[in-house]
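Objective 1.3, modelling of assemblies. Example input:
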Amino acid sequence: MLKQKLIPVLNKPVSFWVRNKQWLVFSGLLALLWACGGADSDRLPILGQREAVTKTVDGKQVTDSVYQTIPDFAFVSQYGDTVTAKNLDNKIYVADFFFTSCPTICPKMKVQLKRVYEKFKGNPDVMLLSHTIDPAHDSVAVLHEFAQNLGVTGRQWLFVTGDRDKIYDLGQKSYMVTAQADSTAPGGVIHSGAFILVDRDKHIRGIYDGTTEEGVDKLMTDMDRLLAEPKSVASKS
Amino acid sequence: MSKLPRLIAGFLACVSFVSCQSQEEIKRERYITEGILVYKANCANCHQTKGEGLAALYPPIANSDYLVNKNKVICLIRYGQQGRIIVNGNQYNRPMPAHPQLSDLEVAEVVTYIYNQWGNEKKVTDVKMVAPVLEQCRTELNGPVTN
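Predicted structure (tokens):
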């Protein structure tokens, strides 16, 4: 009896919470995210070396940081044409280093990069760039057959070859990965299994373990985040 | 009075009978367990963990018609494979590296794993069966030993 009487009394204030519980919790979480997130923390960091450059602008000293960027290069794709940094202008791209006869981590990397390819297939803002580190063996014809056998068509995923020292140099100095000849390693070359995510300004925004599914899941999430960054700001220069 | 020893004897006979019966099974499981490790370390990079291969680059092992040539399989694991091969009607032409570091036993273990997992076999491919096949291939590849 007592209970029945109480319920209608309590009904009003309780029902507000109960009826709007989901909405309240949701908006609470949203507010929390907003507060913690801030404006900039959703952006991926810019990796690599940075230099502080001090200039005098309008009589005032202004210090600006200059970020490491991928310099221009000229390699040859699996279709036999020249690929330069210009081909990647206004696109985000994933770079990696491999060779076709590699028995160790490359097949794993290619399985994983194929997942990225399948996910972003046809997206004009995304490219993949695989550099061979065994150009003596990996000619244009070899790369072409490899790409074809992997099920890669079109120009979204380019396999490039070129001068060995230039490739090693670019890998080590600009992409910050290991790539060098070593006769004791299986296949004669040691190299890292990293995938490097580069933004529209040719800044490195992430380095991922290209041999594991988790590493590449993270890469694909970060690619979505990078694609969501405003284009006009990112690609003004 | 003499019941207890007889009971013990009976019990022991029973145990040894059961264990004899599953001796082969224990061996099979041991081979497979080791074979999985050998497979993961040496084969799975290209042929994938589930043996499905990789596109037109590396042929599948799972449900592969190539498995009928067991002696060839044994040899190519140790000595590698060159040139075109046809697997399930598809052509593959990428060299498979040799694995000279694998012992006869390791080859037997990985072959046992492959055939139990994907070749409809439920038995051990014993190292005693694998060793002469490997020896035969070695002499064929190197020519007869002359000294």
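The mean pLDDT of chain B is 90.
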